[in-house]
Amino acid sequence: MPGGALGDMRHWLILGVIAALVMGYRGVLSRLSRRAVSGPAPGMVGAVAVPEPVGNAISDDELDRYARHIVLREIGGPGQQKLRNARVLIVGAGALGAPVALYLAAAGVGRITIADDDRVSLSNLQRQVIYGGGDIGQPKVHAAARRLADLNPHVQVTPLPRRITADDVALIRGFDLVLDGTDSFRSRQAVNRACTGAGVALVGGSIAQWEGQLSVWDPVHDAPCTACIFPDEPAPGLAPSCAEAGVVGALPGVIGSLMALEAIKLITGAGSVARGRLLILDGLWGETRSIAIRRNPDCPVCGSRG
Fold first, then answer.
1. Hey, what's the torsion of the CAs at 144, 147, 152, 156, to 10 degrees?
2. Of 78, 57, 60, 59, which is closest to residue 69 (Cα–Cα)?
3. Which end of the chain lies in a sparser environment, N or C, as judged by fewer CB atoms within 10 Å?
């Protein structure tokens, strides 16, 4: 056989093998999609309408978008469907809420509500990467919702332009998970009380200067709540805010991404989550620590929950 003809045959054989692999890969994704389980029915949460899911069948566009998730053994089609059906509340659309919202929307968490009463300012742009210059002066929740819609049109985002208080137990019950990125002790304790009363797990993170920390506060599964470990408000000046003490811009990206990762694991059931552990990152010296923490049986917030 002439060399040119042999080369052409090899070329077409290689193309055929590639085409077969691609078709087989798409077939596997389609089967995983059909095996995915559906989640809880949507409804109304207080004054916030939880949007209806777009349907149980994962579209071809979603199969391509989430392909790197679906081929993971720990997530697969069923796990991606759980993400798609999940209802998540992000409290605080600032330095931590920004990467949390971006990564959860990109991951395909189907229904996201963002609560914050602040507006975008120029000083936010150093670390709150969800916003741009054109968003300055706009309510954060609306600017964030527009960005997430552009990032992933399959995700339904509900802006909630107010703070979450300890009285929002009924609101919290309408969600599968809450992530708290607020930056004050009182705000964190209010969110913790509402989540504890509702029996909903809380992924909490905090940052200051070069250090960040996070944990999954979940008394329902015998993990402590925030008040078990931090029962009293720090003395004035002992725990200054980021505005007072400063914060390196990349730090909230790291802690916020870890919070989103914990949320994905909680929703899909993959791996081990940070219940009963406090993860601490020292960004200045590149060190991490994990501290075991336990519930306080006399905790005024969760001590009566078993």
1. 40
2. 78
3. N
Report how far residue 282's alpha carbon sits from residue 288's, in angstroms, rounded to the nearest whole number.
Answer: 6
Please, what's the largest Cα pairwise distance for the chain?
A: 87
Amino acid identity for residue 173 in this structure: R
**pLDDT tens readout for residues 156-178:** 999 999 999 999 999 999 999 99
Contact 224, 196 (CB under 8 A): no
90 neighbors 49 (Cβ within 8 angstroms): no
* Domain at 255, CATH number: 3.40.50.720
The pairing of beta strand 277-282 with beta strand 287-292:
antiparallel
What is the per-residue pLDDT across 179-197, written as a single tens digit (0 to 9) for each?
A: 999 999 999 999 999 999 9
Supply the range of the domain harboring residue 212: 66-229+245-306
Q: Domain total for the chain? A: 1
